[in-house]
Fold this sequence. Notes:
Elements: E1 65-74, E2 77-86, E3 92-98, E4 101-108, E5 113-119, E6 128-138, E7 141-151
Antiparallel strand pairs: 1-2, 2-5, 3-4, 3-6, 6-7
Amino acid sequence: LPxxxxxxxxxxxxxxxxxxxxxxxTTKLRLALDPVGTExxxxxxxxxxxxxxxxxxxxxxxxxxxxxxxxxxxAGKAYVITTAKNTDDVPVDLVFTxxxxxxxxxxxxxxxxxxxxxxxxxxxxxxxxxxxxxxATVGGAPVTATFEAPYGALN
Length: 155
């Protein structure tokens, strides 16, 4: 199939002639050449070198949130305390999850730190991992990232 919105095709000698067109996805390329000469249909074609470039993939937007978790004994009960700092430049919604519950904090501004504590209702807990799921809108598109934070056992 012909490419769409092709620019002008150059015919300069001894230099690269570049043509741009809408990106295509393909596994094969075919070059169709038209002869150039003084009379229509008469002339010659020649290629010194043919270069084809792949467009670099746009990296998916990511969120930057620093997360940590720790186990603490408070009034004889074991708690998991998870902390998240929004180190990104957009506000994020955070969902904190541990073996002992889930908490949501909306609209955490850039540079701000929030924590969620989870009461295990037990005197001791095994080591584990808390997760923080961050969601935000970046460049008009929704972005989600999940971060893990290990915490130690508490006996």
